[in-house]
Amino acid sequence: MDLNYTAGASTLCDFPICCHEEHGFPNTNSAMAPEYGSPKCDTPTKLFESGLTFIKEKLSDIDAVLISGDLSAHNEW
After folding, report:
1. Measured between alpha carbons, how far is residue 52 from residues 20, 60, 63 in Å?
2. Could you tell me which residues come within 8 angstroms of residue 74 by beta carbon, excluding any fewer than 6 positions away?
3. Cβ pair 44, 36 in contact under 8 A
4. How far is it, in rounded angstroms, from Cα 55 to Cα 24?
């Protein structure tokens, strides 16, 4: 998950992860980071929170949720 993800920032950069304010804001929609994420970037907080909201509203009969995997930002070397 990327706490620095910025919707509208460039998805094109020379770094392993883009979509940050410091990568600039392109003039073309095809290079802008969408609100809920891009395959060229780490997961934005808004997408993660949306997933949790879905679980709460649509799967309310479950007792637990296990979230595992690669949740750290890929620009943290």
Report:
1. 23, 11, 14
2. 16, 17, 42
3. yes
4. 34
Decide: residue 51, CB within 10 A, 0-12 exposed, 13-18 middle, 19+ buried: middle
pLDDT, tens digit only, all 77 positions of the chain: 889 999 999 999 888 889 999 999 999 999 999 999 998 898 899 998 998 899 889 987 888 878 777 666 676 65
Cβ count near 65 (within 10 Å): 10
The set of residues, in sequence order, having a beta carbon less than 8 Å from that of 35 and lying 6+ positions away, is 7, 44, 46
Identity of the amino acid at 30: S
Question: Per the structure block, which two tokens stand in for 48?
Answer: 């993660």
